[in-house]
Amino acid sequence: MSGNGSRRAAGELEAAALAVLQAAGLLPQPVPYLPGRQSRPGGHLAYSTVVTILSRLYAKGVLTRSRSGRAYSYTPVADEPGLAARRMRGLLEAEPDREAVLARFVSGMSPADEQLLRRMLAEQPGAGD
Fold first, then answer.
1. Which pLDDT score is estimated for 95?
2. How far is residue 21's CA from residue 128's CA, in Å, rounded to a whole number?
3. Phi-psi region of 19 (alpha: psi -120 to 50; beta: other; left: phi over 0)
4. SS3 readout for 63-114
5. Which residue in 92, 109, 123, 127 could disulfide with 113, CB within 3.0 to 4.6 Å?
6. What torsion, rounded to 10 degrees, do the Cα atoms 9, 61, 85, 18 define?
């Protein structure tokens, strides 16, 4: 790690790669540019860095991949709200006391978000049974 403070926050490159994939939809070739890092002239990342990022996202189940010649094409498994919901579900499943986690989550919501959640739960099939 360099002492110049240019070190990225955890997951920043993964988030940037995912944003590019979300914007592009199906991606038939490697991502040529991710903003920020100056690994190459013009801010382009090294090919090996992109491959590593995409491979990590694939291993985490955030992307699917299929052969495209000698390389892979990567596609997000869900849109941004779907991926956020997936992360939330993963965090909830990692905790032994789900009720406490959900209670604290709801108690920390804004009144508008709480009302939205209540309305959405009431609209679910079987609600009120």
1. 94
2. 40
3. alpha
4. EEEEEECCEEEEEECCCHHHHHHHHHHHHHHCCCCHHHHHHHHHHCCCHHHH
5. 109
6. 50
The residue among 39, 33, 31 whose CA lies nearest residue 65 is 31
For residue 9, what are the CA distances in angstroms to 6, 14, 36, 63?
A: 9, 10, 12, 21
* pLDDT, the chain, mean: 78
54: tokens are 């995409």
Region 100-128: mean pLDDT is 90
H or E stretch covering 19:
helix 12-24
Q: What is the mean pLDDT of residues 74-98?
A: 88
The whole-number pLDDT of residue 50 equals 81
Read off the amino acid at residue 35.
Answer: P
Please give the pLDDT value at position 107: 93
> For residue 41, what is the DSSP state?
G
